[in-house]
Each structure stands twice: as C-alpha cells, then as structure tokens.
Amino acid sequence: MKNSILYIDPFSGVSGDMLLGAFLSLGVSIEVVRDAVEAVIPGEVALSPTPVARSGLAGLLCEVKVIGGPGKRTLGDMMELVRGSGLSDRIIQGAVAVLGALGEAERAAHGKPEGPVHLHELGGQDTLTDIVGALAALEDLKPGTVRCGPVNLGKGYVQTSHGQMPVPAPATAQLLSGMLVTSEGPEAELTTPTGAAILSEIVQEFAPLGPMMAHRTGSGAGTMDFRGFPNLLRMFLGARDLPVEDSRAVVIECGVDDASPEYLAPATGLLQEAGAKEVHIIPALTKKGRMGVLVRVLASESQKEELIDAVFDTTGTAGLRYWPVHRAVLDREMIAVKTPYGTVSFKRWCTPSGQCRFKPEFEDIRKLAEKAGIPPARMRDLAVAAYVLEVGDGQQED
Predict the structure, then answer these.
(1) How many CB atoms lie within 10 A of CB 184?
(2) Total domains, the chain
(3) Which of 16, 312, 339, 354 has the smallest set of CB atoms within 10 Å of its CB?
(4) What pTM did the predictor assign?
(5) What pLDDT, in 10s, does the model give residues 116-129?
(6) 189 and 262 within one domain
(7) Residue 2 Cα distances to 29, 135, 346, 350, 353, angstroms
(8) Which domain-ending residue is among 224, 239, 254?
(9) Which SS3 state, helix, strand or coil, does residue 237 take?
(10) 357: domain range?
(11) Taking a C-beta distance cutoff of 8 angstroms, is the pair 21, 49 a contact?
(12) Do residue 337 and residue 317 come from a single domain?
C-alpha cells in the first residue's frame, strides 16, 4: 500500500531465517513463502515455523530442513533456477540481484575476480529459501516504504571454511555499504551475508525508527539463544511516518464577549493569512453569563509565537491560553484535471488501509462557475466526472 511503511529492527542482527520468521510473525501466510520456494526448488526443503523464546521474549523460528536436491550449487545454477521459476518479475529480479550481491561480495572478499562462484558458507537450498521466501513475503505485504534501523553485526570471531575470521566476516563486510551498523551484545556473528544481502535489496532507507502509526508487529528468531540478549529480528508495519512539522502543533484559544460581529468576522481570514492551519469561531456563554465566542486556532509549533501575536491583534483579547497537541496527517497530492471550462485542482489522499478519497478545490470551482455562468454545484459535478474519467480511483469526499 502506498502510504504504509515496513520498519525492520535488526537490534540483534539479521539472517535469512530471522527475516522469514519475522515476516510470518507479522502475518504473512506460510503458504505464500512455501509456494514461492516450491516454484524454485520443488520438493527440496520443508519449512517448519515454530514459536520459541529467546532470552525470555517470544519469536517465530522458521526452520528450513533440506529433504532433497544437491548439496551445493554454483551461483550460476541458483540464478538459473530463479529465472525459470515462473514467479513474478519483482521476485525474480530481486532474487537475482541478491544472489549477484552475494557473489560479488564473495569475489571481493577472497580476491577472485573471475570463474564460477561457490558460496562456501551458504547451502544452496537454505540460501534460495531465505531469499525467495523473504521477497515473496515482502510482495505479499506490499509496503509503500521499507526502512531499516542500525544493523547489529555482533563481535569477536567466526569459524569459516577459510579459517577463523573477525566479525563481520569478509563477505558480510562487503555488503554493508550504505547501512547504519553497530556492534553490541555477545561475541558472535549476528549478521550473516544472506541477511545483509537481502536488506541491501529491499530497504530504501537505513535510519532509526521515526514517528509512525504502528499497526502490526512481528519477531523472527535466530537459531542461537544467548543468555540475557534476545536473538530476535523485529518488524513493524504501519502508516507512513508523519512530517515533524505537521505532527507537532499548538491550539491557541481565547474567549471574546465585547466585540461586534462585524469587527470579529475578518479575524478568520487574517489569522489564516498569518499562517493558521485552522480557525474556528464557536458560540459560547462566557464569564458573567455573557453571550460571546471562543476563537480557536490550530498552528504549527514553529509558528506558535506569530499566531499568538496575531490572535491578540485580531481579536482585541487581553489574554489567551495555548497547549500542545499532536496531529496525524495523511500524505496528500494535488492532481490537475482538465474540464471543458478550465482546469480544476483535486486534493487526493489515501488511508493506511488503502482507501482513497478526492475533493476538488472550491476556489477553482467557484472561479470557473462564475466565468461559465453556471451554479458552483453543477461545475463541481462536471469536474468530478472529468476526474473519474481521467484518474478513475478514489471516493468523492462528501
């Protein structure tokens, strides 16, 4: 969905099986992953998602059991299996890119620019399952944005087919370009080459968790269980993060019972010109039983002082109150639609669940209606009909 965001939190590192477990814990069906893997290596692996605890916290471990096929495959063999799978172009292209990144990392780490590549530390079935399964799960979720926090690499040394290597292992280190990384916790390899390669393909931005409306969470477990350090990969699926300026605001309010309506009426326009996001004039019974109004203004935090001055200037009040509020603001886009009478701008926005709405700008409707000599309501209907023909999605705002 366009306005959704998937946030990956590799506070204890990342591996292929941790990604699979997290996607399944988040709500992706095991059949989505299993069907994709079967399309590439039919009958070669069995998937077994199992709830486990890691240092007292719950997670889902997705075990991959090899039940058939060759023990090892070259990188070229694995790519050919993916290309011939019949899966979607997005999954095929993504899997080939991840495999290619693994191959380049292996070449660079061992100084072998030519010849067939064998992924020494990665079993062919495991690697293909992790890559294809994660990409199929991501396609099923369809997030608008994928963001990832700092990747914990672990520390110490790891035993490889080439001997003992420092963490991160050379191939993993080659895949970390552009990522935020850290080194905490137990002395172990927390991030594997496959996990790093998948992140490099699916993540658009590596950054700490920012403001977002979280809807679902999931936790994928690693095979190791460290004492006092939960070996989990967390995921959060929710609404796109809110712009900082829009998410923080203030309400400014005052009561007015000694101003004539003809002098108070211009206050709305003047306050909007001063930068107010919203202005409301609300009938109220003020002190001493007098009939008056509440002037209520919504302003961004950055314009608080200017709007406080503007309220004093426009209402004549001698005192006011204000308090901070938080706003949840959906992304909006403006779409210009041509009608027989001219162009009308439409505001379009979508909810986190994917329901889209649209609304024509009234000032455009008013100007074109006056020029054409027809009622604004008729011009609105003509503009909406043109929008539906040209854009064809969304529901008109009442």
Answers:
(1) 14
(2) 3
(3) 354
(4) 0.63
(5) 555 554 558 999 99
(6) no
(7) 21, 18, 18, 8, 10
(8) 239
(9) strand
(10) 332-396
(11) yes
(12) no
